[in-house]
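Pilot study result, target chain (313 residues):
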Amino acid sequence: MATTENVMDPHVEAHGHDGAADWTGGSEPFRVSYGKLMMWYFLVSDAFTFAGFLIAYGALRFSSPSWPVPDFVFSTAPFGIHHAPLIFVTVMSFLLIISSVTMVRGVQEGHRENKGGALFWVLMTAVGGLGFLGCQAWEWTNLIKTENMSVTRNPFGSFTADGVYLDMEGKPSKEAFHAGSSYLIHRHEAGHGAATAHEGGHAYKPGDHPGYMMDADGFVHRKFQYTSGPYAGQVQVESFGPKAFGALFFFITGFHGFHVFTGVLLLLILAVNIASGLYVERKNGYEMVEKIGLYWHFVDLVWVFVFLVFYLL
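Predicted structure:
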């Protein structure tokens, strides 16, 4: 028995030693930390969420007979700038792209264990995010207060067939519109006189232009007759563009803006922790800066797709 025990004991000990090494949990999966792995899981799930929203936008847009023209909808900017398509949103996008560059610099300085450098670039990233949010706030204010757009009302649209405008008596006016030409309708505001409708940079008051009418609620409408296409000969009063545009714009850009706002809060918390020396003690290359950086780059990447579907297509 003694001989048998002496023979078996080394095998048993070796097996137990190997088993203990397999279940210690000391090795990290995919050579990344648990925190980074969980951040990637979150970003993948969030990417599916944004993809679903943008696919829904595309489905509703291409199923609608008319849709607002981005160059016409987003043609205003602060300081009284008009008829400058996409100028303002380009500034917004530039701020967000530059903030990604500063975030990269923050991660680099963190890897070098440079506390001051990491703090500076993280704060610069937060400034870029705040600048983007400020621009988005102005854009929303302009669309809601000036253009009277809401989640249920869209004053922008585009014609889908050629036709002529009719005057108040139903007689054809001299002006004709062409397929795809866009229009904008403004609501009558108390104390500002008659409502004004804008087309191609020209303003018309209801009553002195035969193609416009105002209803009892102060909304301007356009009455026209199709001269070609499947609706030839039909008279239509078109007052607003597809309602889905306003709802989709505010929801999707607002959802992205919420992500940017959350990112700015995380960056400010990160800056406080860096300044307190918390990450110096961990000696892990400021890994938390890198994890927040992954989130920030994702937010910037999503904006590229939002910019594409709303402002370019």
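One observation from the pilot: The chain has two domains: 29-152+244-312, 157-239. A full batch analysis is planned for the follow-on phase.
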